[in-house]
Design goal:
Layout lengths: L1 H12 L5 E5 L5 E8 L2 E7 L2 E7 L8 E7 L8 H8 L11 E11 L5 E10 L2 E14 L2 E11 L11 E15 L1
């Protein structure tokens, strides 16, 4: 009996427990940069919600499911922001959220570096994307940082607008253990 209990304890001690984390909107940033008439326009979103199941030692068993409120777009220009919320851009009446769901997370060689592959859905259109990121742990929290580029036309945003087709998105997600 003692051997059985000892075997169970040893087996359980070797298992990694998947921790769940919730993004903290007030401490997180989702920013983008896009060219317009040769100038960089910067903007951001808030309203970050979701769940991150993350184990730095077993990234393959980790997952992310994040939603951002598209109506929170802010480019420091209220007229432009109102225009971006209209149907030719984000169409927030019909598509109030931007959504990302991971399919696979892998370690990327250097400690603390990973890549998440998954589906980004904007304005009802989904596209497979890959996001390299770092994960820095601290007292029941993680700071996830990464950046990636997307083509706005893949998501039906902006039509034949004068803005650049490609934009860069930079993420700094602060998540606490839930």
């Amino acid at each position: 009996m003692k051997k059985t209990i000892l075997f169970i304890l040893i087996t359980l001690s070797g298992l990694t427990v998947m921790a769940q984390y919730k993004p903290v909107d007030e401490k997180s940033t989702v920013q983008f940069t896009i060219g317009n008439f040769g100038f960089d326009v910067k903007g951001s979103f808030t309203g970050i919600q979701g769940m991150i199941n993350f184990d730095a030692q077993a990234p393959a068993s980790s997952s992310m499911d994040i939603t951002i409120d598209a109506g929170t777009i802010n480019t420091d220009n209220s007229l432009r922001d109102k225009h971006l919320k209209d149907d030719s851009y984000f169409d927030i009446k019909n598509y109030p959220n931007i959504h990302f769901t991971s399919a696979r997370i892998t370690a990327s060689g250097k400690t603390g570096n990973y890549t998440v592959n998954g589906k980004l859905t904007i304005k009802g259109k989904s596209k497979d994307i890959s996001i390299p990121f770092t994960a820095v742990p601290a007292n029941n929290e993680f700071q996830f940082k990464g950046s990636f580029k997307i083509n706005r036309k893949d998501f039906g945003i902006g039509g034949t607008s004068t803005i650049s087709n490609e934009l860069e998105v930079t993420l700094n997600i602060h998540a606490v253990k839930s």
